[in-house]
């Protein structure tokens, strides 16, 4: 497909006979917001780690615009930024020092550091040490480092964890603006109301297996009737 950006073909990761991510086939399109949903232990972070090259798949591959690339190559890593589900910052550094470090790794100037701090509401506390940051402030700093580089794809693992309602609202605004600028957003979450509000498409993982994948509009509107994603995903087996 002309609009296709990343294709995952048969991605699997086997930890043991009972714990595994099995045979994932997914396509991420250009300039879309794609949500990967599921509960704790469903395999979302494992899939993210395979996609980012942090974990080698047991089987399968990832294609970038139809090309089979080494996921640990510099060429591939230049295509995305990554926000992990938990990022531990050095507590003695300030917010600005942390972002300046990530900026230098990417060859990014200080003006972009200030822009990112403004974007996540941390500019006024940029010279405060991380040890004085709340959980939500550290989560916003993690988002800021993912927003620094001008790359086509943002990969965000549970990005709203620890955010208060206002910053969940601001997160949605930030992500929608990223899409308007042509970015592709791939994020994991267990908050299905967020998916309904934000995502173009969604996939559901359960015990390492892909259960559903479709546009959010198609999932919640069936035969002309609106059905919340929560009811679709958590419905009792027939």
Automatic annotation (TrEMBL):
Keyword Transport listed: yes
Per UniProt, what is one GO molecular function of this protein?
A: ATP binding
Q: Which residues cross the membrane?
A: none
InterPro entries (alphabetical): AAA+_ATPase, ABC_transporter-like_ATP-bd, ABC_transporter-like_CS, ABC_Transporter_VariousFunc, P-loop_NTPase
Q: Which Pfam families match?
A: ABC_tran
UniProt keyword annotation of ATP-binding present: yes
Judging by the UniProt lineage, the source's domain of life is: Bacteria
Protein name as catalogued: ABC transporter ATP-binding protein
From which lineage does this chain's organism come? Bacteria, Bacillati, Bacillota, Bacilli, Bacillales
């Amino acid at each position: 497909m002309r609009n296709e950006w990343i294709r995952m073909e048969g991605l699997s990761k086997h930890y043991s006979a009972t714990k595994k991510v099995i045979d994932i086939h997914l396509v991420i399109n250009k300039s879309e917001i794609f949500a990967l949903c599921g509960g704790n232990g469903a395999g979302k972070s494992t899939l993210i780690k395979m996609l980012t090259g942090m974990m080698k798949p047991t089987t399968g591959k990832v294609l970038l615009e139809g090309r089979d690339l080494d996921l640990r190559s510099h060429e591939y890593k230049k295509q995305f930024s990554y926000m992990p589900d938990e990022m531990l910052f050095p507590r003695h550094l300030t917010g600005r020092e942390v972002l300046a470090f990530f900026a230098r790794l990417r060859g990014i100037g200080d003006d972009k550091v200030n822009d990112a701090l403004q974007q996540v509401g941390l500019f006024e506390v940029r010279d405060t040490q991380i040890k004085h940051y709340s959980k939500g402030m550290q989560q916003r700093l993690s988002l800021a480092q993912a927003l620094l580089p001008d790359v086509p794809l943002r990969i965000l693992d549970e990005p709203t964890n620890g955010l208060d309602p206002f910053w969940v609202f601001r997160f949605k605004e930030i992500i929608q603006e990223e899409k308007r600028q042509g970015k592709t957003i791939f994020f994991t979450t267990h908050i299905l109301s967020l998916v309904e509000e934000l995502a173009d498409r969604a996939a559901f993982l359960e015990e390492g297996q892909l259960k559903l994948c479709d546009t959010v509009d198609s999932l919640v509107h069936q035969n002309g009737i609106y059905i919340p994603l929560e009811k679709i995903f958590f419905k009792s087996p027939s």
